[in-house]
Amino acid sequence: MSRQVEAMVGYLKHTVRAQSKYKIHSPFVFGFYQDVLKDEHIYIQYRVVNRLRKELETVSRFIKRKDMGARCKDYPCDQRFVRVKDIIHHSSVNRKNGEFLFRLIRHYKPSSILELGTSLGISTIYFALAAPDSRIVTIEGCIDSANLARENFDKTGLKNIHVITGNFEDKLALALNEMPSPDLVFFDGNHKKEPTLAYFEKCLQHIHPDTIFVFDDIHWSAGMEDAWNIIRKHPLVKVSIDIYHMGIVFFKEELSKEDFTIRF
Ligand SMILES: C[S@@+](CC[C@H](N)C(=O)[O-])C[C@H]1O[C@@H](n2cnc3c(N)ncnc32)[C@H](O)[C@@H]1O
Questions:
Q1: Was domain 3-47+94-261 assigned CATH 3.40.50.150?
Q2: DSSP assignment of 190-245, as one string?
Q3: Which of 10, 62, 162, 200 has its CA 20 to 30 A from that of 228?
Q4: Probe target for ligand 1 pocket from 116, 145, 214, with the most ligand atoms within 8 Å of CB
Q5: Which atom of ligand 1 is the closest one to the Cα of 216?
Q6: What are the structural domain ranges in the chain?
């Protein structure tokens, strides 16, 4: 089966499994559904990202991509030089999911955010716009991408973001030293089973009951499916929510252990 067909079948399975809102009995998860997922308000901050995205979509300049063994989402892994506009198209969070991240941050108000996988900084900008008073640490292994992300943060006037350049394997411990108890962690790089589980385990040592983990591309490959299934079944995870492109987990002690699949 080709990747495209596999993805279509995966999405169909997801929609069949998805719970209707009437089956969401947990008030906490219903709040997530109503106030985060289905909030259709067009926030003025979206314009900042839309403008930047539009601008970057016209940039045909090549940047040198460092291959860290991480599987790339849509372009060939051995491609060493990539156009900025292709990165925006293939690697950065899209508008729908970026705006979801914005609303998630706006709703739960994390004051410390850790991101694995900055790329050009699009998701980071959604975070910073939603929580301008938060501290954000983001890690990126590709030097050219990290530099371009820094330029984008300057351009959008965002001052609360610290970019750490280097491999997650080397830099995650440093980031967790700087931010020992993050309120939210976004895992968006090296979409493979073992590394994803390793980052999860490492970050798990730094959670508090209100910490939120968000995993990107949980159904992107069989390995990522496995990783997601292991994560959601972890005894410390209370509620997991699968919205197909992302998986969100909560650790709140008062919640009963439950997995949700919600169509988005
Ligand atoms: C999907 S992109 C991140 C997109 C970004 N969060 C956004 O939505 O705008 C993943 C990024 O993770 C970086 N990456 C992948 N594996 C890595 C690793 N082991 N260490 C450091 N960076 C890595 C890649 O260079 C790439 O830029």
A1: yes
A2: --SHHHHHHHHHHHHTT--TT-EEEEE-TTSSHHHHHHHHHHHHSTT--EEEE-SS
A3: 162
A4: 116
A5: 1
A6: 3-47+94-261
State whether the beta carbon of 140 lies less than 6 angstroms from ligand 1: yes
Atom of ligand 1 nearest to the CA of 166: 21
Q: Among 137, 146, 115, 120, which residue's Cα sits nearest to residue 212?
A: 115
| Residue type (1 letter), 79 | Q
pLDDT tens digits, 53-62 = 999 999 999 9
From ligand 1's centre to the CA of 242, what distance in Å?
21
pLDDT digits (tens, 9 = 90+) for 22-50: 788 899 999 999 999 999 999 999 999 99
Atom number in ligand 1 closest to CA 65: 25
97 Cβ below 6 A of ligand 1: no
**CB distance 232 to 259 below 8 Å:** yes
How far away, in angstroms, is 29 Cα from ligand 1 center? 29
Which pTM does this prediction carry? 0.95
Query: How distant, in Å, are the alpha carbons of 6, 127, 172, 253 from that of 118?
Result: 27, 12, 13, 30
Residue 23 neighbours by CB under 8 Å, 6+ apart:
none
